[in-house]
Design a protein that fits this description.
There is one protein chain. With 277 residues, the chain is α/β, with parallel strands linked by helices. The chain has helices spanning 40-43, 45-51, 77-90, 106-115, 143-152, 154-164, 166-169, 175-188, 192-210, 226-231, 235-242, 260-263, 265-276, and strands spanning 6-10, 13-20, 28-32, 57-61, 97-102, 123-126, 218-223, 249-254. It is globular. Mean pLDDT is 92; it is low at 145-149. It contains 13 helices and eight strands. The chain has a single domain, classed as Alpha/Beta hydrolase fold, catalytic domain (Rossmann fold), CATH 3.40.50. This is AB hydrolase-1 domain-containing protein. It comes from Enterococcus pallens ATCC BAA-351.
């Protein structure tokens, strides 16, 4: 199976970094996948295909995702952020960066700006989570059993998930890429690291909440996804409250599902271009 990007070594494990470089003076956009997105590089393809016409774009696949190996390292926010930074360094991709984070990766993007403010020029939220969104979230007691059952069914589930994914339904992937996405999803869906991330998410959110809200330009692209609203009924309000102290925050609301970057990539790309310029 052809690897779309390059493998770099981080903490003795291979991590996959996909990079589209352009002759542009703007900061590099770093796409960070949400929890459970088994094949981030192809999940993000509709968006990076559009953005790479004007900007340098990287996709860093965390351990246990895409073509990256799994790791025994804990899934706390500090470890995951350092893995991302080291992967970019090993791939010889220089900052400053604009992390464009989907869902749970919003925590990493915000923490990155808190801890290394000189590296982060702005933040783009692709229906990203903010730390306060996790205050009321608790794992069900049957979570472990559900994961075990789902893991047994991951191969047939992977085929159905890929077939119904917007990138396939809308013709964004070649046949070869569709086949690769099926194989990677079957391999990585509910990987050890994916499951561990869920166990760590509450403490990661608490650590991010303890820091100050970043005072840099922020673009929050929000969906009206029913799943989000069921889990966090005040999804949009929580974001507006978290960034209330940052006068450089812009909000764009889209009528679509949680995967805004693959469901409405043109609208998302236009919003990002307007934001950066």
């Amino acid at each position: 199976m052809k690897i779309p990007g390059k493998l770099v070594t981080v903490n003795q494990q291979k991590m996959h970094v996909f990079y589209q470089e352009t002759d542009c003076s703007q900061p590099t956009i770093v796409l960070l996948a949400g929890s459970g997105t088994a094949c981030p590089t192809y999940d993000f393809k509709p968006l990076w295909r559009l953005l790479s016409k004007h900007y340098s774009v990287a996709v860093v696949e965390r351990p246990g995702y895409g073509w990256s190996e799994t790791t025994e390292q804990p899934r706390d926010i500090d470890t995951m952020l350092e893995e991302t930074r080291e992967a970019l360094k090993q791939a010889k991709i220089k900052g400053p960066f604009v992390p464009a984070a989907h869902s749970m990766s919003g925590l990493e993007a915000i923490y990155w700006a808190q801890k290394y403010s000189e590296e982060v020029a702005a933040i783009i939220g692709l229906d990203m989570a903010v730390p306060t969104a996790y205050e009321q979230l608790k794992l069900p007691k049957t979570f472990g059993l559900t994961v075990s059952i789902a893991h047994l069914l991951r191969r047939p589930a992977a085929s159905l998930m890929v077939k119904s994914h917007p990138v396939v339904k809308n013709g964004w992937l070649t046949k070869e890429e569709q086949t690769a996405m099926k194989q990677i999803t079957a391999q990585q869906l509910l990987s050890k690291n994916m499951v561990d991330e869920i166990h760590y998410v509450q403490s990661n959110a608490e650590k991010t909440t303890a820091g100050k809200c970043p005072q840099i330009p922020v673009l929050c692209i929000l969906s009206n996804d029913k799943g989000n609203l069921k889990t966090v009924p005040r999804w949009g309000a929580v974001h507006r409250e978290y960034f209330a102290g940052n006068q450089q925050t812009e909000f764009v609301e889209l009528a679509c599902g949680h995967y805004v970057h693959s469901e409405q990539p043109e609208q998302v790309a236009k919003a990002i271009e307007a934001f950066i310029h």
